[in-house]
């Protein structure tokens, strides 16, 4: 099957150089975090991956990240998409650097795959060789460990995760029970980088086989 990449679009990216004290308290900002960057995209899992990348290359932390219910097709507005993320840092320059990393990662380094020409049947299978502070905390692992980020429609996600766990020496550290806010499912797996790659390939192979023969059991 000829998989086609489905890349995310950055819908909005704005900065607040000096956050109001009330908003800072609501976001649980640390005393030194005076600036924030707010970003939205039309694909949530790419957004989470990009947030994590930002923490590795700039002095920023993720203070908020969330998916919108029903996904980009039912967004509340043209700049909403299906994801919002907020980065916080000590200065506007650091936050700007983090936002630049976020945008580059989302547009060039992480993407979904389409199983059909209309891109209605998609999945996410991405290996992060070294996690930043954000996904390390989400997964409950040490910062810098490898991670396989695997997402698919509900049935495909469950079947794919089982195949991934059996194919390599990896462990499931975060299970996204289907349906998620965007009606997908999946999980985060950790192990050596080579094991994460093998698990990711097994996940992909399984999702493809299901798409080719969905009713053969």
Automatic annotation (TrEMBL):
Protein keywords: Bacterial microcompartment
Occurrences of domain BMC circularly permuted (ranges): 1-111, 112-217
Designated name of the protein: Ethanolamine utilization protein EutL
Gene Ontology cellular component annotations, sorted alphabetically: bacterial microcompartment
Compartments in which it is found: Bacterial microcompartment
PROSITE patterns attached to this UniProt entry: BMC_CP
Principal subcellular localisation of the protein: other
NCBIfam families named among the record's database cross-references: microcomp_EutL, PRK15405.1
SUPFAM superfamilies associated with the record: CcmK-like (SSF143414)
């Amino acid at each position: 099957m000829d998989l086609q990449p489905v890349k995310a679009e950055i819908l909005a990216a704005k900065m607040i150089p000096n956050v109001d004290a009330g908003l800072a308290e609501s976001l649980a900002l640390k005393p030194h975090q005076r600036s924030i960057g707010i970003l939205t995209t039309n694909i949530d899992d790419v957004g989470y991956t990009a947030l994590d990348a930002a923490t590795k290359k700039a002095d920023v932390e993720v203070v908020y990240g969330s998916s919108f219910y029903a996904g980009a097709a039912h967004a509340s507005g043209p700049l909403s998409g299906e994801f919002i993320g907020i980065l916080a840092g000590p200065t506007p320059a650091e936050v700007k650097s983090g936002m630049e990393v976020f945008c580059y990662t989302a547009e060039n380094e992480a993407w979904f795959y389409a199983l059909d020409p209309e891109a209605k049947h998609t999945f996410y299978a991405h290996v992060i060789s070294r996690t930043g502070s954000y996904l390390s905390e989400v997964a409950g692992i040490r910062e810098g460990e490898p991670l396989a980020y695997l997402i698919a429609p509900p049935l495909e996600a469950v079947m794919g995760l089982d195949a991934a766990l059996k194919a390599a020496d990896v462990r499931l550290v975060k299970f996204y029970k289907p349906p998620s806010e965007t009606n997908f499912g999946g999980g985060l797996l950790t192990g050596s980088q080579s094991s994460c790659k093998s698990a990711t390939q097994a996940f992909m192979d399984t999702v493809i086989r299901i798409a080719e023969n969905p009713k053969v059991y």
